[in-house]
Amino acid sequence: xxxxxxxxxxxxxxxxxxxxxxxxxxxxxxxxxxxxxxxxxxxxxxxxxxxxxxxxxxxxxxxxxxxxxxxxxxxxxxxxxxxxxxxxxxxxxxxxxxxxxxxxxxxxxxxxxxxxxxxxxxxxxxxxxxxxxxxxxxxxxxxxxxxxxxxxxxxxxxxxxxxxxxxxxxxxxxxxxxxxxxxxxxxxxxxxxxxxxxxxxxxxxxxxxxxxxxxxxxxxxxxxxxxxxxxxxxxxxxxxxxxxxxxxxxxxxxxxxxxxxxxxxxxxxxxxxxxxxxxxxxxxxxxxxxxxxxxxxxxxxxxxxxxxxx
Length: 310
Prior knowledge:
0% strand, mainly alpha
């Protein structure tokens, strides 16, 4: 009985894969151009308003690049002054900056294009894989965190944060990370897909197998691949829905660029980390999963810095 159910599932996947390939092959030109236009516009938005220009750039280039960011900061300062909150700390101002650009503006955009349901942007209840994958991923990330924190550039960059107190920096980063993952792990993973929304809940196939495959399926991978080939086959094996590879890569690259200007090791780890976090969001069917993992790694990094300072 279980074998028949498995075969039926594979047949359904094969039919869906074939339909997906036909849709991609005969996608109208205007629709392809619309998808690419969204990718370009969102990338420009991130680079101009979120990415901090690296210090090695020419000062004149950095000045032009920082222009839009300083303009938004100035607008926030004017609003705070109007409200009588002129003495707001740099953490409050920076927090409002990210809330506006990574939370409010994307939310308004989603509402205007008809993606007003939170589930369309990955604001969903995570599936049962959440604690398994996040817990193991956190353990695997610890050696990389130690390597990153021991960098000569890491502690000086965050010294001003530590001077404000560990509680302030943790609250600040938890708020910023929430906005960051709503944008990169939720909205962008919808916008960068052909249909402009998150896919349906990924399947969790549990075959009656033994050995490494049984362990792999407990972590949500080693899933049926149907008739897919290449990267799509690998993504399906990981349990990631079809049509998500491009969104994962582009979101991961933009996530990595946001870490420009920080320590070299942190910048280097941000690219594979961003791709993994995007894939984790799809696999757990919610951007809350990468947010939880990232919050855990940031907390661990702060603790390591405090131990190094003591």
